[in-house]
């Protein structure tokens, strides 16, 4: 079994795979990894991959160093099952690349746009030849709500839950509609522009923010919340199995 240790900006995910099958996902603190020993006790994990977008504290490093299984640390030097054309691979967030790897494993030989809506919204493109061309980064949903509150003098902090109208009827609904509709139009705009250039384009949507939208290209969207975890497992399998 493979153990995926995915340490993000807000939370850590511990995922156990048997081959390509996802068996369990555990959400843990990205400052302690306190649940890691329990996961290792409950599953006969044989190897692990560690991917992080934050600097790890001493407690987390201690948890990882106590593991007795081989660890693959994902960085810019890790061999990948796709060709990376990003000009500064040392600055490329592992989650962006892992999402692309996960999508290309599901649909090899296709032009793919991968949209990850989490702390940030990222838009990544990999072509049918397996070449990752790069992508764009935009503020995520919670970041947009907080920015409107923190960078203005009078606008309140609004959540996504609540009354929704096409055009705001008061300050709260105006902010909610502005943020959610702004995200919707941004995502649809990317899809339509890329679809025009790549008519056979397939679109993957992943990430932690829940939102839905109606669009004429909805039938080409595949939603997979665990796409990054699956991509990390694919990278681990590629380094352990495919390259022996």
General description of the model:
It is a single chain. With 244 residues, the protein is α/β, with parallel strands linked by helices. The protein folds into 2 domains: 73 residues, ATPase, nucleotide binding domain (Nucleotidyltransferase, domain 5); 170 residues, 2-Layer Sandwich (Nucleotidyltransferase, domain 5), CATH 3.30.420.40. Helix content is 33%, strand content 25%. It has 6 helices and 11 strands. A 6-stranded mixed sheet has the order 6-9-8-7-10-11, with helices on both faces. A 5-stranded mixed sheet has the order 3-2-1-4-5, with helices on both faces. Helix 3 crosses helix 6 and helix 4 packs across helix 5. The model has no long low-confidence stretch (mean pLDDT 92).
Quickly list its features.
33% helix, globular, 2 domains, six-stranded mixed beta sheet, 244 residues, alpha/beta, Nucleotidyltransferase, domain 5, five-stranded mixed beta sheet, 11 strands
């Amino acid at each position: 079994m493979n153990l995926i240790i995915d340490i993000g900006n807000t939370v850590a995910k511990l995922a156990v795979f048997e081959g390509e099958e996802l068996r369990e996902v555990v959400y843990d603190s990205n400052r302690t990894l306190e649940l890691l020993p329990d996961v290792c006790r409950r599953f006969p994990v044989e190897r692990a991959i560690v991917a992080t977008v934050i600097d790890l504290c001493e407690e987390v490093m201690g948890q990882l160093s106590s593991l007795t299984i081989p660890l693959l640390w994902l960085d810019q030097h890790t061999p990948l099952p796709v060709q990376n054309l990003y000009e500064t691979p040392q600055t490329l967030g592992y989650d962006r690349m892992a999402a692309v790897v996960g999508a290309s494993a599901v649909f090899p030989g296709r032009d793919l746009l991968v949209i990850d809506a989490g702390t940030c919204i990222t838009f990544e493109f990999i072509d049918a030849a397996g070449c990752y061309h790069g992508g764009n980064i935009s503020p995520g949903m919670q970041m947009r709500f907080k920015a409107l509150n923190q960078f203005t003098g009078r606008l309140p902090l609004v959540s996504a839950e609540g009354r929704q109208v096409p055009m705001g009827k008061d300050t709260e609904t105006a902010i909610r509609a502005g943020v959610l509709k702004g995200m919707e139009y941004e995502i649809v705009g990317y899809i339509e522009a890329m679809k025009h250039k790549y008519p056979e384009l397939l679109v993957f949507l992943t990430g932690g923010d829940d939102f839905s939208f109606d669009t004429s290209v909805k039938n080409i969207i595949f939603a997979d919340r665990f796409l990054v975890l699956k991509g990390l497992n694919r990278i681990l399998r590629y380094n352990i199995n495919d390259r022996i």
